[in-house]
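@channel sequence for tomorrow's demo:
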Amino acid sequence: MWLTVLATLTLSALSAACGDNNTPSNVTAPGDETRLKTQVLETGTSLLQGKEPLEAMNLYMDGFHFYNGDMQAQMEAHHFCSVVNEDINQCVIFDGNGTDAKLMGMETIISKKLFDALLPEEKKLWHSHVHEVKSGHLVAPGIQQTAEYEFMEKLISTYGRTWHTWHTDQELTLPLGHPLLMMGFTADRQIDEAMVAERDKRMRISSAEKRQDRQSIPAPAISPGADAWQQGEVMQLLLRPLARREAVPHSQPHRHAQLPAGSGN
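structure tokens (generated this afternoon):
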């Protein structure tokens, strides 16, 4: 179904405004201005090198996140996504949609079928998309309304796991600290409406109109385990030193690794 939706979006893009390059980055990164030599090298590599993974990211969504455990810390998030298969979408997230945008994080989007097969502890890291779609806050800028509607019909039953790595919403000009788990909004009166209104004005859209238009999209039941923060189970990433010879969590030796006996810590 993702491929059908993608075809619809592609055709829509041919007759719709691009809907991008209207949101600057939150911060200006430190460092010297790009030199002419660097610009020339960049131009050359853009002509000579393939960028297939980037070119596959042909879905653009704009929405809002909050830090798991701190709903008051909210921000806009620009998602550029590719279709892995019918059950998986992968997105890189920026703080804007212009050339100065900072890479803010990533989100993996999976179907209900894949989510329901996850272990209970893993499910606590994932959020639903029902309210984001029904509220009209999640949008696909620059495409026709009918195409966006079809895309949201598919997205509403999915689940996302999102990590932010560069917290430009906190005015950090470098990606300092460590990644943090993000969540999506699940009910009215959670989100900062002024933030939504500013986004709508900038992008020349109406979340209220999209909300009305999407009332006919059925809202599926949310699978148990998602949005765990609502049951008081707030998961967040912390950094700590590893003890000597302690295994790195979730890591396994690379299949090509040939480590001699006794190597390591």
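heads up for whoever presents: The chain has nine helices and seven strands.
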